[in-house]
Amino acid sequence: MTKAQTQFLLLIVGAAVLLLLPVMSGNYTLRLATIMMMYATLAMAWNFIGGFTGYPSFGIAAFFGLGAYAGAVVQARGVPVVLAWAFAIVIGSLFAYALGLILLRLRGHAFAIATLVIAEVLRELTNGMTDLTGGGMGLNLPFFGWGPDALGRFFFYAMFALAAITLATTYIVAHSRLGFGLNCIKQNEDAADIVGINTTRYKIIAFTLSGGFAAAAGGLYASWTGYIEPSDVYDILFSIKPILMVLLGGMGTIFGPALGAVVFLVLDEIVWRNFLQLHTGILGLLIVILILFLPAGVLSFDWRALLKKKVSAT
Amino acid sequence: MTALLELKNVSRSFGGVKAVRDVSLTLQPGQIVGLIGPNGAGKSTLVNVITGVHPATAGEILHNGEPIQNLKPFQISARGIARTFQVVQPFPSMTVVENVMAGAMFAAGVMSMTEARAVAMEHLTFTGLAAQADRPANQLTLANRKRLELAKSLAMNPHILMLDEVNAGLNTAEINQALDLIRAIAARGISIVIIEHLLKVVTGLCSRIVVLHHGELIADDATADVINDPRVIEAYLGSRFAERQMVRHD
């Protein structure tokens, strides 16, 4: 079996197990799985600009928060939930596009710092526009009128669909001219320019994809939790966790970001249950160790070599 | 006949430094032109100006009669103007064939990846790199990385190719191979501008030489005339040496 076939098979098995969860398990597990898929989406969103293009964006929280508020604001004014999500995606993508026109003139560290500021600016703006957003008091979303089981299942499937679409887009990009061009930009932007790649356009497309998918996750998150506030959805951790997840899973790969999200959240859950006081410290340590020993991500680990070694040893 | 490439009073300044001043020259189809001059004369800058990397601050550049001085580098390469870099610029972790594919896919506009791979393999065979096709580009020797630059530029399907010191750092045997390769490229009807310090290379390849000194064009003539031009000798070896040469010639 080739590597691609193995991965495809694992993907099918993984998706099947996930889809059976609502039938098999309780609401707690379901909630965990929904969060996992949300973070997988955010990690894949980051991967477009950070992994494929090599531009270290710290902007995921900005797009996540913007999507959450865009969706929530129109939903609070009576727009149906699915339309509100579509609106969140449009707003997130447009904002990323406009921002890309300005920010993607910068390279490397300058770009990273610039993206870091956006979430802060948006948070302050959201705080200030009390009439529209509820400001620091937060924003309540219309109640669905469903029981917790039905609600949990609905958002589980919605998040599953979003993660699946993001993964499919990642796959398509990686195998297209776009992905090839982005890889060229990552490796040597000057050479990419001279070889005939419209580098500005390519980078803006990658950034827009990143912003659009992060905003979609934000839109879903807002409807799911039913209440959002600026300090919650513009939290810097929404920018940093996806980067860690991609580093854990494998930068610029197709399955790495989603896998990294799973590894990260499983570690988080285990550590949190066992070391309530020290959990962030221990989690941080574990991540540093993992990245030190597997710099290209969990995906690069050669499981077959390990299995062979075991077999030959016995 | 409109020239393939025509520079009209082109200048480029970096702050107060005029790296290229008021240069005018034309390139006809099928020519191999040598671009020489002492270090810092503005040779590489002139190539950067033509390819849009550092746009001209004054003057006009015409390609087949159309102005191109305001185009971006990717638009200029799509018009069939390719260049290699003095310091080779590969995509380091991509394979050799993928490097060449990039040229075919973007500048030459080959839409399908399979087709681009086939085109790339042709150019790798032509440049003698076919056996290295699936190795990462950063594992190649310097001579092979220079060949890779050539293959990548050729995949861009250019009709003008500017070679910025493709022979720097190569040994004699490698230079001779590179010269054969450049002749073979010219035989395909591609006009070549070659920046070079080695006179052997210039005299062996070019029928015409353009000399830059302090950013200015000081000579543009047939090879034999240029290398005996006192101003050129002065630029390279100083005025006293030039005077001595003149006395000897008298």
- The order of strands across the largest sheet of chain B is 6-7-8-3-9-10
The chain-level mean pLDDT of chain B equals: 88
Shape of chain A: globular
Which CATH class of chain A is shown?
Mainly Alpha
CATH architecture label name of the largest domain in chain B: 3-Layer(aba) Sandwich
Instruction: Provide the gyration radius of chain B in Å.
Output: 19 Å
What does this structure look like?
The complex is a heterodimer of chains A (314) and B (250). Chain A is mostly helical. Chain A has 15 helices and two strands. A two-stranded antiparallel sheet of chain A has the order 1-2. Chain B is α/β, with parallel strands linked by helices. Chain B has two domains: 5-80 and 158-249, P-loop containing nucleotide triphosphate hydrolases (Rossmann fold); 92-154, no CATH class. Chain B contains ten helices and ten strands. In chain B, the strands form two sheets. In chain B, strands 6-7-8-3-9-10 form a six-stranded mixed β-sheet, sandwiched between helices. In chain B, strands 2-1-4-5 form a four-stranded antiparallel β-sheet, with helices on one face. In chain B, helix 9 (230-237) packs antiparallel against helix 10. Chain B is globular, with a radius of gyration of 19 Å. Chain A binds chain B through residues 177, 180-181, 183-184, 187-188, 190-199, and chain B through 51, 53, 72-74, 77-78, 82-83, 85, 89-94, 98, 101-103, 105-108, 111, 113, 152, 156.
What is the fold's blueprint, element by element?
The complex is a heterodimer of chains A (314) and B (250).
Chain A: H1 3-24, H2 27-52, H3 60-76, H4 81-103, H5 108-128, H6 130-133, E1 139-140, H7 148-174, H8 177-187, H9 189-194, H10 199-225, E2 227-228, H11 230-233, H12 237-249, H13 256-274, H14 279-293, H15 303-313
Antiparallel strand pairs in A: 1-2
Helix pairs in contact in A: 2-7, 2-10, 2-12, 2-13, 3-4, 3-5, 3-10, 3-12, 4-10, 7-10, 8-10, 12-13, 13-14
Chain B: E1 5-14, E2 17-27, E3 32-36, H1 43-50, E4 58-63, E5 66-67, H2 73-78, E6 81-84, H3 96-106, H4 113-127, H5 142-155, E7 160-164, H6 172-187, E8 191-195, H7 199-205, E9 208-213, E10 216-222, H8 223-227, H9 230-237, H10 239-249
Parallel strand pairs in B: 3-8, 3-9, 6-7, 7-8
Antiparallel strand pairs in B: 1-2, 1-4, 4-5, 9-10
